Amino acid sequence: MPRGDKDKYTDKQKRKAEHIEDSYQSQGVPKDQAEARAWATVNKQSGGGERKGGSGQTKSPAAKARSRASSARRAVATKQGLARPGQRLEDMTVAQLLERARQQAIAGRSRMRKAELIEALRKG
């Protein structure tokens, strides 16, 4: 494919590039620069022109759903400061240790250092 040839792009990608280019031109960007930016954006979002074949490593819809659910659970746990299952206390952050100590109602936890929190969690 010669440089600049857009034959391998889907109609959707071409429409998207045209829309992005129009947006840049309305902001006062010169036409050639707006076109270059538009195609760079399309390439970044979709990985370039239409691809046929691929690696052949596709997941079943059920496997994709399991992966998404698992990922979502891990993201929520991380956001809430909870530890991963099987994670050692030493590998946890102080915030995670404090959250565990709060759940176990350990008194004086806010003034404890990491080592003290670990010791208190092991006892409690």
TrEMBL record:
Biased composition (Basic and acidic residues): 1-22
Low complexity bias spans: 60-77
Matches recorded under InterPro entries: Rho-like_N
Domain of life: Bacteria
Region described as Disordered: spans on this chain: 1-84
Domain Rho termination factor-like N-terminal span(s) in chain numbering: 89-123
Residues making up the signal peptide according to the UniProt record: none
Protein name (record): Rho termination factor N-terminal domain-containing protein
